Amino acid sequence: MSSFSSISNSFASASRAAVARRADVVNEQQGVTAATTAAGGVSAKVDSVDFSPAALAASEAAKEIRSELRAQRLAKIKAQIASGEYDIDSKLDVVADRILKDINRPTGTGSDSAAAG
Q1: Neighbouring residues of 113: CB distance < 8 A, sequence distance ≥ 6
Q2: Most CB atoms within 10 A, among 2, 71, 86, 96?
Q3: What is the C-alpha separation between 28 and 26, in angstroms, rounded?
Q4: Average pLDDT value for residue range 37-41
Q5: For residues 80-84, average pLDDT
Q6: Percent above pLDDT 90 for the chain
């Protein structure tokens, strides 16, 4: 139940923030257009992007979920290390293999390779 209320609160916060950001963009665009027109110039179009409150809320909820999952995974690994169950050797083997593959990967062709050789 608490996750629903936190998503609900995130949605409300995101909605308020989106409205405030949109108002700032509109005010800024109107100021630029008015200044350009007053100077006798041609007003330029300004690109803008608007995210719906639902999209902003979904983004915030996803961030919270990722953060919670990361914390849970970290706690699990810490517990495994503390109990001696975490298999460090296999992790090191994977890292070493990836490093060796990266070192042995060709770096390119052409003038750069010829100059290096």
Answers
A1: 107
A2: 86
A3: 5
A4: 57
A5: 92
A6: 40
